[in-house]
Amino acid sequence: MNRPTEGNDLTNQVIAGYSVLHRLGVGGMSEVYLAFQNSLHRHVALKVLRADFVGSEEHEQRFLQEARSVASLIHPNIVQVYDVGKFDSTLYIAQEYVPGSNLNSFIQRRGALPLEEAVSILWQATSALQKAASIGLVHRDIKPDNLLLTPDGEVKVADFGLARARGKNQNLTAVGVALGTPLYMSPEQVQGLTVDSRSDLYSLGATAYHMLSGRPPFSGETALALAMQHIQAEAVRLDQLRPDLPEQLVGIVHQLLKKSPEDRFGSAMELARELRSFIEVHLEGRGDKMIPFSGLVIEHQAVTSSVATEELQILMMGRDSGLKDASTKKKQRRSTSIQNAILWFGLPLVLSSALSFTLARVDPFAHQSTSTAGVVRETSVQRQFALALVENNLKHWNAVSEFFPPTDALSRNYYLKSQIQIARLRIEGDDLAGAEPNLRTVIESPYSDELLRCIARIELGWIQQRGQRQPSGEEIRNENYARAMREMSTMIPEKQRLIRDALPARVRAEWETVDYLYQAESKPVGAASLGD
Fold first, then answer.
1. pTM of model > 0.85
2. The domain at 1-97 falls in which architecture?
3. Which of 9, 88, 141, 263 is flagged as catalytic?
């Protein structure tokens, strides 16, 4: 995959009424940005066709196919498309932005999931596929990466980019090309045969197997070897890996993984009936409810292309003359994938110049490191910041300003963000005195925007509370708390939420109490409450 150059970055541009805030990720055909829809005051994920595909009728049709496929699917468990259009030469799709994690990342952090969480995810995904099947739509790429999870337990199926209406040949792919991801691809899809909704059920079964066991049902050193496993091999029984799982659930998953579509459930509706029976018997009716996911970290969804999928497509098309060339480029593509993960996977959610902070790893001793020893200087401040997000230690955050001093608007922007991140690491490492200078830098800088400054005030107020513990209810007398309250009172709810989400957990817990007390104090005398 050729990553677009920074010159093509649409950050800070306005496209058809969408203010582009930051690039979230890059895929095979598209780039995805976090954007703010000015007319409705909401965040959206803005997917745009990559500049190197603009003008190609085939790629433009394939890009628009996604929007047309899912536009009529109004369902709580499906990422909704809001708008599609062309602005100058930019072809775009505006869709629902889902702050949370995808299932793949969640499994990587948690391992095999608890029964109730896994069944809730399976139930909601089944509901989404049932809706898609009702209009004859086959997703064709169900996998953990395309199941997005929100902190309150909601599951949303994303990326209908490979979806195709049943019975329609839109001539958008060459004959024999297998679309999808080899780890979760149905046998008929691997072989380039006609697929229907039962192919999605197979992929859902492979996804369910992964979240219940902590590993996909099959593995292989190459894409072709992996594909052959789906065609010929039987997955290890789930109850051998998880003896605690009820036999009925194990049976459901393995029926989904049957090689022949005729041996699987006939439809998502049929699967839903079986799941309902299981939920009533084993979970006392709780499995069809949203269950808040423990340990879910809000991160930023990115569209990625799969090297394995590219290899599989080459092999399934029988391009023998290209195999040697593909093999020689394999290492280069792996290297590029690693670079892409560093550069794009950890990029922050940004509102103007403020970000919702997601720390991939928390090093409790990070405050002990103050140098930049061993840190590689990247070619731009954006890349240096992205690397710091991935490594998440003080020396990498210090490198942002040391390698790119705050001498212009862009470097100042990242410098201030880095100061907040350094302060957060110090707070989580209990180096409260060390965090103060970083926070004061943000507060006193004339270049800080209202969100960054408000976050810094709250964190500094929290540190000051630790030094002079006041009686319960008097926290709002803290000047930094009080000023943050006044500033937030003038902001729209979306900005207020971003500030709260950006705070370290223990700071946020106290801040929510302070918020409540402040609202109570500010309430006019004699005002009736909602419960009156």
1. no
2. 2-Layer Sandwich (3.30)
3. 141
